[in-house]
Amino acid sequence: MFINASSLQIARTRTPKPITPNGELVFGESMTDHMLVVEWTSSKGWDSPKITPYQNFSLDPATGVLQYGFHAFEGMKVFKDEKGKIRLFRPEKNMERMNKSCARMSLPSFDEESVVELLKKFVKLEERFIPSERGFSLYVRPNMIGTQQSLSVGPPNSALLYVIAFPVRPFPTRAMHLEAVEHALRTSPGGAASKKHSPNLAPVVAPAGLQQTLFLFSDIEPVAGKIVQYINEAGTMDLFCTMNIFFALKTKAGQKELVTAPTGSIILEGLMRLCVLELARERLQPQGWCVSERKYTIEELAEAAHEQRVLEVFGTSTAAVIVPIKSIGHTGGLIKCGPRENEEMGPVGRQMRGWIESIQYGDENHPWSVEV
Ligand SMILES: *Cc1c(COP(=O)(O)O)cnc(C)c1O
């Protein structure tokens, strides 16, 4: 699993691309000049890493990733601070999660520190593509694919780790409406939807149609013994991302509580989810908030909304940071989720977004921000 980062070979492009003006950026459409690739075989382990010009792959039509979806990926952002320094955000967490996703997909493991080293070298080389305007960043997409040329279903005997990147604009902070989906599940216990891999993403598109979707999961509530619908995650088509969901409410006893569903097997271990939980425990708990990782149902949300106890609801993802949710459509009814008329984001979401961005852009000196 060892990757020798110091043996990196760099072949620079002879045709550098023009920089897309910030105002014209479309998510995922302006790739940088280069990509990072590392090949693996079961007989020889990891080969020397290479940075090459961004280019097409040549794959046999029977390749494992094309047939059976042997794939794991990550999404991370890289920032330029006011002094022009490049900053990664908790990259070791992305690599740790990618190794877990790879293990679930029978893909090889890698040493996380070496890949963080390689990522630093890669983004340094692509420095001119990292926008310096506040809110903008470079989106980095590490992938691993199974490259075995075999139609038999088995662990890949060869794989490719590769990293591509493109500049992105800030996501809009408009509050969005979600439709709760009853007829399709995103995941079920013991499945692989808690991992980051492509077979998680395509199946969320059709149930959503043209809408922003809230996935539910029906199960037996252990105390009452009746079937309830647990809130799972949201899939958003116009923001190109899936999100973990938080809701801030007042309990019947008047306690302020920030709740999100626990990870385990049906919730993706979102990195923004982790950041919001850690910041909430450090900074909101002392202000009297209770921070909970517990299962919660749409019935509970509807009841709290009916009793005017929902303070705000938001989604989290690396791509969008915090996405405020204003309402949820559920079996014909409309659950109102908080922000007052003419307010797009509630105070908790706003504060979280501010805290996270000030760490990402290095305004606040914090161990999560890793200088290159
Ligand atoms: C990536 C992803 C998220 C968000 O995770 P972050 O690490 O916060 O970006 C949520 N759900 C799914 C299914 C995902 O793939």
TrEMBL record:
PTM-bearing positions, type N6-(pyridoxal phosphate)lysine: K196
Source organism, top-level taxon: Eukaryota
Keywords (A to Z) from UniProt: Amino-acid biosynthesis, Aminotransferase, Branched-chain amino acid biosynthesis, Pyridoxal phosphate, Transferase
Residue ranges crossing the lipid bilayer per the database entry: none
An example Gene Ontology biological process: L-leucine biosynthetic process
One GO CC term, this protein: mitochondrion
GO molecular function: branched-chain-amino-acid transaminase activity
Required cofactor names: pyridoxal 5'-phosphate
Pfam families (alphabetical): Aminotran_4 (PF01063)
PANTHER family: BRANCHED-CHAIN-AMINO-ACID AMINOTRANSFERASE (PTHR11825:SF44), SUBGROUP IIII AMINOTRANSFERASE (PTHR11825)
Family affiliation: Belongs to the class-IV pyridoxal-phosphate-dependent aminotransferase family.
Protein name: Branched-chain-amino-acid aminotransferase
